[in-house]
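Journal club prep — side note

Before the paper discussion, L.F. wants everyone to see what a predicted structure for a comparable chain looks like in token form. Sequence:
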Amino acid sequence: MLDEFVWGRVSRISPEAPVPVVEVSRESCYPGGAANVARNLAEFTKSVRVLGLVGAKDEFGAKLTGLLSAEGIATDCLVASENFRTIVKTRIIARQQQVVRVDRETRAATDEATLASIAAHVGRVIGETDAIIFEDYGKGLITQAVKDAVCALAAKHGVLVTVDPNPNNPLDWSGVTAIKPNRPEAFAAAGVVNSEPAEDPLADASLLEVGRRLADRWKVGQLLVTLSEHGMILFCDGSEPYHTPTRAQEVFDVSGAGDTAISLYTLALVGGASPREAADVANHASGIVVGKLGTATVSAEELVASFPE
């Protein structure tokens, strides 16, 4: 999806309705949604490609493809659909505060032709792939058939697979390496009412129960749950739950923090880190991103500087 930002200032209330009038000073666009995962990865490696749907007939698809290419992200696996409209989310921001967000979107239909295109693209590049990330924003593209087809190819070639799931799209995720929901998503997926979080996540009985349920249901060896201001907790086969506290110094915008977390967690695993080390890396990176406004990423220099010498 494409993230648009309209920046300005508010100096008066409209005479037409009790709403602020934003005087626009500038506009900017960034690859968003699953494409933001690719942007986070591209800060650390130039071997990143995206697979997803864009509209074949709208200007936003061309703009999104161009922005990705400009950041060195390969777009040869994008599927341009005649029946799909590129998703655009426009945020109007004044004095570093979001005034309103306007969404233009339609759900994708993963028909047999789209599934065949996805499988063909993955089959073509799987031999040069270290990891695959499913970033599910619940827009309809990722179905059980898509997951099964991609994971079958990944398993055949020994490719690591991680998932940022969507509770509104319950799939059988068995066979993947790691899954990273946030706390509300984890509780929703486990069918547990989200309770007030405990100050110490390792003493949060509801959270620990959710972790046990999901690890068993999804049959996954690594479950990383992001906890907003409480950091992250990792449930890993054969180990006690591991909590890494938040690293954020100041929070301006939490949008995109989950994209950063799954990106850096996966990248760290590919680089040889243990799951606990990968969780620490992801937590540091997310702490940096929430201190920025807009769809932001973290650089290698910023990440290194966030660790004590």
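L.F.'s comment for the group: The CA atoms of residues 284 and 306 lie 7 Å apart. Keep this in mind when we get to the figures.
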